[in-house]
Design brief:
It is found in: Cell membrane; Membrane. It is an enzyme of class 2 (transferase). The structure is a single chain. This protein has 14 helices and two strands. It is an all-alpha fold. The protein has one domain. A hairpin with a 7-residue loop joins β1 and β2.
Length: about 350
């Protein structure tokens, strides 16, 4: 919205700043942050009154959770979603198709997560939205988004998978790209969802990934930088830096209230939405594989669940004391803060490795 003030720059030079993506990205961070600060306490109060007993706590989880987390309201993702969407609409170029596709995925996944959280709180059970129905809806949103992204990006990489660390290596997937991209978006949403199990555990790696993709989107969307770094040039994706900035600002605001002991949980409302947003941005910028590196922590959490389930079904034995893997380390005697901070460190290291792909070619 404010982007269009830049059109006044021809007559009033002060308005030129609204043309700069870097300025608007910074504005999106600050706006989303203060939006959550301003409306967050009211949202928490309202959700606590509506939910009563709060989010159901797993009885098979670490014993301390039943004491420290019981009664904490969920659906805190509403704070993140509202702040990020408001800030994005305020600061981004609304004529940019990539912005609308990412918002479509973010809000769509958030709605699925909200319904899941609603059912869990209503039933006071971990059985929310049926997993098959949920996955079908996620896949549908992902496929629609990827078809739109393939139309927006155009040739020569509209349906291609690009490989990091290797100059010009691309695999044309043809019509399968839409299915592949839909899978990436769906997998990203659910992997962040699995990671969201401890106070602050998921939101910081999400912000780290969003910061990385703010840079990637800016570079990939620039003719000059993409040519210098030997990156694929995807016109228009630089605007996604503003969306990433809004996610970072809203995430920082949420972390203020989610820091241990959490006043509110993110819930599926936030985790699915944030993961879906990262997945769609990765597909738009043609950095799907880099997302798997930068978001390696989310991949690790997901793999731990897959290994645990597969091992138990095939052998009747468990590989980990509890899955996802962050609970395994709790059972080994790590405190919650140790698990969270050490996992944050891992996410920072993986982010640096992922970003190195921009130069090492």
């Amino acid at each position: 919205m404010l982007y269009f003030l830049g059109q006044l720059g021809d007559s009033l030079t002060a308005f030129n700043v609204f043309r700069y993506i870097t300025f608007r990205t910074a504005g999106a961070v600050v706006t989303a942050l203060f939006f959550v600060f301003l409306f967050g306490p009211g949202m928490i109060k309202a959700l606590r009154l509506k939910q009563g007993k709060g989010q159901p706590i797993r009885e098979d989880g670490p014993a301390g959770h039943l004491l420290t987390k019981k009664g904490t309201p969920t659906m805190g993702g509403l704070m993140i979603l509202s702040g990020a969407v408001f800030s994005t609409l305020l600061w981004s170029n609304l004529a940019n198709g990539y912005v609308w596709v990412v918002l479509f995925v973010t809000v769509g996944f958030g709605a699925i997560g909200f319904y899941d959280d609603y059912l869990k709180v209503k039933r006071m059970s971990h059985q929310g939205f049926g997993s098959k129905q949920r996955l079908v809806l996620e896949a549908l949103i992902g496929v629609i988004a990827c078809y739109a992204l393939s139309q927006l990006s155009g040739e020569p990489y509209s349906n291609s998978l690009l490989f990091p660390f290797v100059k010009g290596l691309a695999l044309n997937l043809g019509y399968f790209f839409v299915l592949f991209g839909g899978f990436v978006i769906m997998a990203a949403g659910n992997s962040v969802n699995l990671t969201d199990g401890l106070d602050g555990l998921a939101i910081v790696p999400v912000m780290v990934a969003a910061a990385c993709f703010a840079l990637i989107a800016y570079l990939v969307g620039s003719v000059t930088f993409s040519e210098y770094l030997l990156l694929n040039y995807v016109p228009g994706t630089a605007e996604l830096s503003v969306v990433c900035g809004a996610l970072i600002g809203a995430g920082l605001g949420f972390l203020w209230f989610n820091a241990p002991p959490a006043q509110i949980f993110m819930g599926d409302t936030g985790s699915l939405a944030l993961g879906g947003a990262l997945g769609s941005i990765a597909v738009a910028t043609k950095h799907e594989i880099v997302l798997a590196i930068i978001g390696g922590l989310f991949v690790l959490e997901t793999v731990s669940v897959i290994v645990q389930v597969a091992s138990f079904r095939l052998t009747g034995k468990r590989v980990f004391r509890m899955a996802p893997i962050h609970h395994h380390f709790e059972h080994l005697g790590w405190t919650e803060s140790q698990v969270v901070i050490r996992f944050w460190i891992i996410s920072f290291v993986l982010a640096l490795i992922g970003l190195s792909s921009l130069k090492l070619r």
